[in-house]
From TrEMBL:
Keyword Transmembrane helix listed: yes
Subcellular location: Membrane
Family: Belongs to the major facilitator superfamily. Sugar transporter (TC 2.A.1.1) family.
Membrane topology value: Multi-pass membrane protein
Domain Major facilitator superfamily (MFS) profile, residue spans: 1-426
Species annotation: Huso huso
A Pfam entry, by short name: Sugar_tr
Annotated protein name in UniProt: Solute carrier family 2
InterPro entries listed in its UniProt record: GLUT, MFS_dom, MFS_sugar_transport-like, MFS_trans_sf, Sugar/inositol_transpt, Sugar_transporter_CS
Residues annotated as transmembrane: 31-53, 90-111, 154-175, 240-263, 278-298, 305-327, 339-362, 374-396, 402-422
Record's keyword annotation contains Transmembrane helix: yes
Cited PROSITE patterns: MFS (PS50850), SUGAR_TRANSPORT_2 (PS00217)
Length: 463
């Protein structure tokens, strides 16, 4: 993504010439480049689909270990593509790396959430989002022409993903399995206690173990749910609605579009094309900084407050950006103000949705539902990502700058929904959070019954 696309397209054409002695048609080159970009999402979708199966079969720790082998293989295949003169190897590597990203991001979040003490569960779980932001920023940095982003070294940039995979492969054997998985899923209290001592230090964990035993008793030996069972379970309906609305608001908030549209905004502000990459690097650094800042706030302010406030500020920023982009030719300093608004938007995104969504998803589902919930949210995330990627060019062609008002509407809806409908999860056990959602489900059920009874009474009176 951070490599000059011309290098890859020249490589595709050059490898074709080396095989067949004639250049490839320009349309075919662009088609292959589009495939290289899109197969990552396809791999990510399949990786997300496999979360439930692999986490249940192998556990959290082993699943992460095996997943890093896939990531390492993908990086090696892509890194060797230039030497082998094969653009097909980039395609294969992108599919594998997408699969690894879709699987690894979810398993990592589950492992962190099931290993963290309740008081700091938010900051520990959301650290996955922080490192995700750091990964994007490091891609932008190493993609600079002064580092690896030039014609002679682009294949090394493709192989750069092997470094985190190697680090985790070396370090993971020294970490224990997730304590909650050991006790609730495997029923091994002794191994759970050893894991807690290794992670948190040598002290008495009686209260934590009792909490896990209560959750184990509440599950009553129920096997982990499949996605279909999760969708059919009426007691989890409100949790699912919460994830659908929140994830949809995030995916359609416009953050992915801001990233692609920023180039034009920066160019209109008079920044030379060769310098825009440095401004983009600043945008990435802003997301990293705000994500780290969120870590210090999430266990104090709470998930709900951070989410609805951030969504509200994002909606306001997007509405203001729509106006300033429309008026950019009338006032000389407005293009510079647009740059400021992009930084503000990314800042609120990092402070809220980008960081809070993982802890929220982990906390509102109990142990038997969690793997299936991450599969469901993964499918939703990658599907919506594909939809917005395909739909935005048409929206931009028809509505121009006013297309940003659509994203403003999604942010506003997300803020209202979280403010009025989502309970706070900060500092609560998984069972306490589950009981709060159950009360919402019961209230909705009684309201529905009262409405039906009232309607029947009116009908009987009329008859």
């Amino acid at each position: 993504y951070f490599i000059n696309l011309q290098y890859i397209q020249d490589f595709i054409n050059g490898s074709w010439v080396a095989r067949y002695g004639k250049p490839m048609e320009e349309r075919s080159v662009k088609l292959i480049w589009s495939a290289i970009v899109s197969v990552y999402s396809i791999g990510g979708l399949f990786g997300s689909l496999s979360v439930g199966y692999f986490t249940i079969k192998y556990g959290r720790k082993k699943c992460m270990f095996y997943n890093n082998i896939i990531a390492l293989a993908a990086a090696v295949i892509m890194g060797c593509s230039r030497k082998a003169n094969s653009f097909e190897m980039i395609l294969v590597g992108r599919v594998l790396y997408g699969f690894s990203a879709g699987l690894g991001a979810n398993v990592h979040a589950i492992y962190l959430g099931e290993s963290a003490p309740r008081k700091i569960r938010g900051i520990v779980t959301m650290s996955a989002a922080t490192f995700h932001s750091m990964g994007k920023w490091s891609g932008q940095f190493f993609g600079l022409s002064e580092v690896l982003g030039h014609e002679d070294l682009w294949h090394f940039l493709l192989a750069f993903a092997s470094i985190p995979a190697v680090i985790q492969l070396i370090s993971l054997p020294f970490f224990p399995e997730a304590p909650r998985y050991l006790l609730i899923d495997k029923g091994n209290q002794e191994m759970c206690n050893k894991a807690l001592q290794k992670l948190w230090g040598r002290k008495d964990f009686k209260a934590e173990i009792e909490e896990m035993l209560e959750e184990q008793a509440a599950i009553k030996g129920e096997k982990p749910k499949s996605v279909w069972e999760l969708l059919r379970d009426r007691s989890l309906r409100w949790q699912l609605i919460t994830m659908v609305v929140t994830l949809t608001a995030i995916q359609f908030s416009g953050v992915s579009i801001i990233s692609s549209y920023a180039f034009e905004v920066f160019r209109e502000a008079g920044i030379p094309d060769l310098k825009i990459c440095y401004v983009t690097l600043g945008v990435g650094a802003t997301e990293v900084f705000t994500s780290i800042t969120c870590g210090f706030l999430i266990d104090n302010i709470g998930r709900r407050a951070l989410l609805w406030r951030a969504f509200s500020c994002m909606a306001s920023t997007m509405a203001l950006l729509t106006v300033t982009l429309y008026l950019k030719d009338t006032i000389s300093w407005l293009p510079y103000f647009n740059i400021f608004l992009i930084f503000i938007f990314i800042m609120f995104y990092g402070l809220g949705p980008a960081s809070v969504i993982l802890p929220l998803c982990l906390e509102i589902f109990i142990q038997s539902s969690r793997p299936a919930a991450f599969v469901f949210t993964g499918i939703l995330k990658w599907t919506e990502f594909a939809v917005i990627g395909m739909a935005f060019p048409f929206l931009l062609a028809e509505l121009k700058n006013f297309s940003f008002l659509i994203f403003c509407g999604f942010c506003l809806c997300g803020a209202l929904f979280v403010f009025f409908m989502v309970p706070e999860t900060k500092g609560k056990t998984m069972l306490e959070i589950s009981e709060e959602f159950n009360r919402i489900n019961i209230c909705r059920l009684f309201c529905r019954k009262d409405t039906q009874n009232h309607g029947e009474t009116i009908l009987a009176t009329r008859l």
